[in-house]
């Protein structure tokens, strides 16, 4: 046996051993990588004693689709078979063309277009192309060929008639499912625990952790319910709140969805019912071809067999025949989305069909259900409506209007980044169309596993190859950097729910939509309504911007616009845009704390009206920071320099959009800051459960965390000034994580590291640290005061109780070992000589 044959046989043996290990976990093997695929192509030509069925199944169904390296090897091999340059006793030329047609887009497209000229295989190639929508620039080649080639003409006609859509079965009249119901609020951390973030790209493996921290034996429960013989539908009171992580939808759909032919280890479809489904989670479900239904679920019990009539909006109990819930389909296009395999495939396919029809001088296709557009209004536009309008080439867009704003800035972090990368590969993206795409490594930098190190290296390269800006591990938090790259009044997105620009507007999304926005350069958006938050008055001396942040839910609760209870949840911000006014003098970094916290309110987005002066100051600093990146060799250099030029152009002619005086809002909330006389903190374990300091004073605490994207240098310095008076080590475990390496360098140079060290602080690598809770964690059941963003159960540590407040409050709490009363707080702040920050 020669070396090569030995390799190929050992590839099969290794694969079978791996398959056995994964089967023991109840999951399929991993998709083939480039090396395995190369060995497989050799086996297909010279099978020796390999099992032909297994080898064919591997090439047909276990290689990732799109522009993965393994897919490239597969596509080149199949193309060579089709051209007769190679041969295989297991895959004929016809089968090779068929398999090329199952690969989505990317490396398979050019060979298929070439094969339109092959006398034997042209009809098979045409058939494959007719069902393919990830065509992009190759459209021109087919269109040109269609003038002289009948098969190419057939492809063009098929695209014009949306054959790719019509070939898929319609959503049936009835869907029978077994309800898998979990009571209360199920957030994305329940579906996709942060502590298991490392396994997110491996969807089946990650899905084994779903709901592990939420209910007893979730996998066994689902297996038992499946015995009833129907697919499961997930049912919850409030579903998908919390971070935007697409892995939550991936895990859920792994258990309730359907396999995608020729795409390994990913599922789509499935039904999710919720009294309330968080907006980002809702769109992640839409993107993945699931049917999310918002309805009253109180009449549904775990284990009920349900008959869903999607076209009628009715859910019946199969045993009693009684209607248990009614619903309206939302959005109007949802059944088309399910039929197309998801909202993203629908948009891509619809765009191809419309483009083809335009080139053929045909009118718009009538096959698709169109988004319902709102009527005309004589009223003016809000700030957000103007920003999105500008990104669509219009004066403004109205709430409810479907639009496709240009994506100027897109952010990706490292626990969703690998999934975004997979989605980019599936979208056949070789270069970003969004102006600036940035990748950070803030979630995995501090205590990486081997798998994280490999991901960090490969993802860095992947982003740079596509002309994105790639940071390094240890550089710091995604938002602390991405905010430094923004352009005023522009639109963007990011795969982290705190992607909430302080200048411009961002609509954070799951990794599928983020990949789409980065690759294609626009984003599908049903423009949400806006809620105006007007700040008036001045808070008492010694209070901070974090107290202003917490004053928003405080005032909303007082005014009956928000409640803390989960059943009968009231939240005026949910799915809407928070438009903040009245603090236009704020520095941009402080403004970010306000927009950041829109994530905790489940808002779709947030904007804050700022003066030109602080924005210009911010942009000037940012040009210096970006120049430093260029000097340090960061790439893509052209992308960074182009952004610096645009910043300078804005500084040279500084103009900001402003809301019209007669703009309409779905609701108004006034926050009178003069009524804020003491710090406000969010209490365990709900960021909405905000209380004044006097209500929680005296609570003993175990640990304090100062860090996250809610902090900047000034807060770290303020904490240092307070800690200086501690006179030694504090009586709690104190964690400090500077947001960026530039902040860390500044704090070190200014001597603050010495102060933190004397207080006994554990200094963390710049990054998310305890805020993410996926690496280092607080002790089990610890009571914590933290400056981080959210305090969902178990996020920071098992069974921990977390109070969220300012860095100043955290520092005083650390010194006392308990939450201070308002006087103690004031005294410490005054002793530290702190000036009011607002
Ligand atoms: S610091 Fe926290 S909220 Fe901010 S990006 Fe990191 S994990 Fe997300």
Considering the chains and any ligands shown, give keywords for the structure:
Serine Threonine Protein Phosphatase 5, Tetratricopeptide repeat, binds iron/sulfur cluster, 5-stranded parallel β-sheet, single chain, globular, Aconitase, domain 4, 7-stranded mixed β-sheet, metal-binding, alpha/beta, 27 strands, Aconitase, domain 3, 838 residues
List the helices and strands and how they pair.
Layout: H1 3-24, H2 34-45, H3 52-61, H4 69-83, H5 93-100, H6 109-114, H7 122-130, H8 139-145, H9 150-160, H10 163-166, E1 175-187, H11 188-191, H12 203-207, H13 218-226, E2 232-241, H14 246-256, E3 258-260, E4 263-268, E5 271-277, H15 279-287, E6 291-294, E7 305-309, E8 314-317, E9 323-326, H16 334-340, H17 343-359, H18 383-391, E10 402-403, E11 409-412, H19 417-426, E12 436-439, H20 450-465, E13 469-470, H21 478-482, E14 491-494, E15 505-506, H22 511-520, E16 525-526, E17 530-536, H23 545-558, E18 577-581, H24 588-596, E19 605-608, H25 612-631, H26 637-652, E20 667-672, E21 680-682, E22 690-692, H27 693-696, E23 703-706, H28 713-724, E24 733-736, H29 741-749, H30 752-758, E25 762-763, E26 783-786, E27 801-804, H31 807-816, H32 822-831
Parallel strand pairs: 1-2, 2-5, 5-6, 11-12, 11-14, 12-13, 14-15, 17-18, 17-20, 18-19, 23-24, 23-26, 24-25, 26-27
Antiparallel strand pairs: 1-7, 3-4, 7-8, 8-9, 10-16, 21-22
Helix pairs in contact: 1-2, 2-3, 2-4, 4-5, 7-9, 9-17, 16-17, 19-22, 23-24, 25-26, 28-30, 28-31
The structure holds iron/sulfur cluster (SF4).
GO molecular function: 2-methylisocitrate dehydratase activity; 4 iron, 4 sulfur cluster binding; aconitate hydratase activity; metal ion binding; RNA binding
Catalytic activity: (2S,3R)-3-hydroxybutane-1,2,3-tricarboxylate = 2-methyl-cis-aconitate + H2O; citrate = D-threo-isocitrate
Pfam families: Aconitase, Aconitase_2_N, Aconitase_B_N
């Amino acid at each position: 046996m020669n070396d090569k044959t030995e390799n190929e046989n050992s590839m099969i043996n290794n694969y079978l051993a791996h398959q056995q290990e994964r089967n023991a976990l109840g999951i399929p093997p991993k998709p083939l990588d480039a090396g395995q695929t190369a060995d497989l192509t050799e086996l297909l030509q010279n099978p020796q004693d390999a099992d032909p069925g297994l080898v064919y199944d591997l090439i047909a169904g276990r290689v990732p689709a799109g522009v993965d390296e393994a897919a490239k090897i597969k596509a080149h091999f199949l193309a060579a078979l089709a051209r007769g340059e190679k041969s295989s006793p297991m895959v004929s030329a016809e089968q090779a063309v068929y398999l090329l047609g199952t690969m989505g887009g990317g490396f398979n497209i050019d060979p298929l277009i070439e094969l339109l000229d092959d006398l034997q295989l042209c009809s098979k190639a045409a058939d494959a192309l007719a069902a393919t929508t990830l065509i992009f620039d190759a459209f021109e080649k087919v269109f040109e060929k269609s003038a002289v080639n009948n098969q190419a003409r057939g492809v063009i006609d098929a695209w014009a008639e949306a054959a790719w859509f019509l070939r898929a079965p319609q959503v049936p009249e009835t869907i029978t499912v077994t309800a898998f119901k979990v009571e209360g609020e199920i957030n994305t951390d329940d579906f996709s625990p942060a502590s298991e973030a490392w396994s997110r790209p491996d969807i089946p493996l990650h899905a084994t952790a779903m709901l592990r921290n939420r209910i007893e034996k979730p996998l066994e429960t689902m297996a038992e319910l499946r015995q009833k013989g129907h697919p499961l539908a997930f049912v919850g009171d409030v579903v998908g709140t919390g971070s935007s992580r697409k892995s939550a939808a991936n895990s859920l759909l792994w258990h309730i969805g359907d396999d995608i032919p020729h795409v390994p280890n990913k599922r789509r479809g499935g039904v999710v019912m919720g009294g309330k489904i968080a907006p980002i989670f809702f769109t992640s479900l839409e993107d993945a071809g699931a049917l999310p239904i918002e309805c009253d679920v109180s009449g549904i019990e775990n284990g009920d067999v349900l008959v869903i009539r999607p076209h009628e909006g009715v859910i019946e109990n199969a045993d009693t025949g009684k209607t248990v819930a009614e619903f309206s389909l939302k959005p109007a296009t949802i059944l088309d989305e399910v039929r197309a395999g998801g909202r993203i495939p629908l948009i891509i396919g619809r765009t191809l069909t419309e483009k083809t029809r335009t080139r053929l001088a045909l009118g718009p296709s009538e096959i698709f259900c169109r988004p319902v557009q709102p009527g005309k209004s004589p009223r003016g536009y809000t700030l957000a409506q103007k920003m999105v309008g500008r990104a669509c080439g219009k004066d403004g867009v109205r709430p409810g209007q479907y639009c496709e704003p240009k994506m100027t800035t897109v952010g990706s972090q490292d626990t969703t980044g690998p999934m975004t990368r997979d989605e980019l590969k599936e979208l056949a993206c070789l270069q970003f169309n969004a102006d600036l795409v940035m990748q950070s490594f803030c979630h995995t930098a501090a205590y990486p596993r081997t798998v994280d190190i490999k991901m960090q290296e490969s993802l860095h390269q992947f982003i740079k190859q596509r002309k994105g800006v790639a940071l390094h591990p240890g550089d710091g938090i995604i938002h602390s950097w991405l905010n430094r790259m923004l352009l005023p009044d522009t639109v963007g997105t990011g795969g982290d729910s705190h992607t909430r620009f302080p200048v411009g507007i961002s609509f954070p999304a799951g990794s599928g939509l983020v990949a789409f926005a980065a690759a294609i350069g626009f984003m599908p958006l049903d423009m949400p309504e806006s809620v105006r938050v007007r700040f008036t008055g001045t808070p008492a001396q010694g209070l901070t911007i974090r107290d202003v942040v917490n004053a928003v839910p405080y005032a909303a609760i007082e005014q009956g616009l928000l409640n803390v209870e989960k059943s009968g949840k009231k939240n005026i911000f949910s799915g809407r845009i928070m438009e903040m006014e009245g603090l236009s003098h704020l520095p941009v970094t402080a403004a970010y704390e306000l927009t950041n916290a829109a994530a905790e309110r489940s808002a779709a987005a947030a904007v804050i009206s700022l003066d030109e002066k602080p924005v210009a100051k911010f942009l000037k600093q940012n040009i210096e920071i970006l120049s430093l990146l260029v000097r340090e060799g960061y790439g893509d250099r052209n992308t960074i320099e182009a952004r610096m030029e645009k910043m300078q152009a804005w500084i040279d002619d500084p103009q900001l959009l402003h809301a019209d005086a007669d703009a309409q809002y779905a609701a108004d909330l006034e926050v009178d800051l003069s009524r804020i006389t003491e710090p406000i903190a969010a209490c365990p374990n709900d960021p909405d459960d905000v209380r004044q300091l006097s209500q929680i004073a005296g609570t003993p605490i175990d640990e304090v965390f100062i860090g996250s994207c809610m902090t900047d240098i000034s807060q770290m310095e303020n904490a240092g000034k307070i800690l200086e008076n501690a006179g030694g080590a504090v009586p709690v475990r104190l964690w400090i994580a500077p947001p960026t390496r530039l902040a860390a360098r500044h704090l070190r140079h200014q001597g603050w590291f010495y102060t933190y060290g004397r207080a006994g602080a554990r200094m963390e690598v710049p990054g998310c640290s305890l805020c993410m809770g996926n690496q280092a964690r607080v002790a089990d059941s610890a009571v914590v005061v933290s400056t981080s963003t959210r305090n969902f159960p178990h996020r920071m540590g098992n069974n921990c109780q977390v109070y969220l407040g300012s860095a100043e409050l955290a520092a005083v709490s650390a010194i006392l070992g308990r939450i201070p009363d308002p006087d103690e707080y004031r005294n410490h702040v005054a002793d530290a000589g702190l000036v009011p920050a607002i």
